[in-house]
User: What shape does this take?
Amino acid sequence: MAQFRRLLALVKPYRGRLIVAMTAVIIGSLLGLAGPYTLQYLIDAVFRQSDATLLNTITLVLIGIFAAQSVFYFVRGYLLQFIGERVMADLRLKLFDHLQSLSLSFFNERRTGELVSRLTNDVSTVRGVVTSDISTALSQVLTFFGALILIIITDWRLTLFMLALVPLVIVIAMLFGRRLRKLSSAVQDQLAAATTVLEEAIGGVRVVQSFTREGYEIGRFRDNIERTFGLAMKRIRLSAMFGPIASFLGFAAVVSVFWFGGHEVLAGRLTAGQLFMFLILTMTIAGSIGQFSGLWTGLQEALGATKRLFEILDTQSDIAEQPNAQPLPRVAGRIELDHVSFAYKDNTDTAILSDISLDVEPGEILALVGPSGAGKTTLVNLIPRFFDPQSGGVCIDGQDIRSVQVKSLREQIGLVPQETLLFGGTVRENILYGKLDATEAELIEAARAANAYDFILQLPKGYDTVVGERGVKLSGGQRQRIAIARAILKDPRILLLDEATSSLDSESEGLVQEALERLMKGRTNIVIAHRLSTVHNANRIAVLDEGKLIELGTHAELIQLDGLYARLYRMQFRENGQAGTGDLSTGQLAEEVVSTAPKRRSFNILSGLTG
Assistant: This one.
């Protein structure tokens, strides 16, 4: 009932239309009872009174009743369809709006296909319950009790005989409904799993084709679809079994009522018209009971979907603003990490960051270096408050970021990831994502600064060229430069870079590097460094290993320290065939790495710097 009340709350904004629709339902239901009641007089006028004038009059009255009923049913149908579509749209918008407010940890634990299935399949399942099912229930309640009153007045003996048949139908409907609810929920869950496989296979089609795994993905999708089909067939078999059983019981009840009523006519307690009316009303009551069983099974299906939808709506973001949070004014860009420790909530025993304290001055370039899994990306994600640390704090210009409004914080932080994500629209739309109200002049200036202007003009439609899903129609260097133009247009005070040149060819790397240097000018920059050119340009270098800050200083200071950074630096220069500090031979370098780090980590240390 709690779920049902929450569903009904979705209809509240349209209660005016719903009241009109329900009024039409009530009048239409009453007219539906008036038809059979009037019909008894038409039959008696023929078989008992032989009155042609009365026959004509009653016929016209019946036509008028059915015409009026059709008008009210049209009003009901139109308004309820409107409300149903509107509620479905509102629910999808509400779910999407809530999803946008959730933190990254929620999406790390959910698969995209599952969420898409919730917003499509589950919402469609819920649609009927909050609109047409309500009106049908009201209509059938009125029809059931109205018909029951009429038949009791007509012949109470026959009514008792008929009602003796009802409990059996109700018990069967409840048993079938309970089983159908479980099967319907299982079908929706399995369909969500199939949707997930579909989304992953289409989204990663280049990887699928490069590994020639088309057959494997087809097999995965087929397995999920077949499991969905199997569950759906179980549900269909149950529904198909229930239909004939209900029909048999209904017809058996009608024949039984006709048999008993025939004896009542022969005894003179009923007229032929009254028996005919009784039979119609009996079938009406049976139809109402059948509708109730259908509504019951539909409600069971909808409640399974509703539970999953409300689970999403009830999920609270890990990143919660304080009630008195204030907007963050434009900052100079000083960043302070004070004894920060972090672990993901699904594995709190494994610390990703441990007791890190670090100050970054306004306008400084700080490079983060370390092996894979050292915690570099996690540290960067704490600054725009994608995650909150378990202990310690992050401050910008001396203000704890947990005390300010998240939107005002993130508006002053720019992020350029290594794997650039572009939306499937036009070049213009992707650049303007950095500043939606930017002028054409600002747009062009940002493109020029990002070294994107020339190649954009060579595209088929220039700025209005569609880039395809995730920017698939553009090269890696072109995508990176559009992402940089987007960040330039945003004009953030703090810039976070997962160095964007590590997977580019030499020509693209030079253009992107030049654009990055323009972007970084005058801002506080934290760069996850993979290339030594970035390290050389950094004011300071922070070396992370196993979630701990083990070295901090300038390039020269860290080389002089001769710790992990110096070893990584010499190792990469050896690989590039260049002379590094401390002219070690290959054999000496290998011996040094083996002697100072566990074997299982040597390759990780190397990949951490080279990407």
Q: What stands out?
A: The chain is about 65% helix and 10% strand. The radius of gyration is 36 Å.
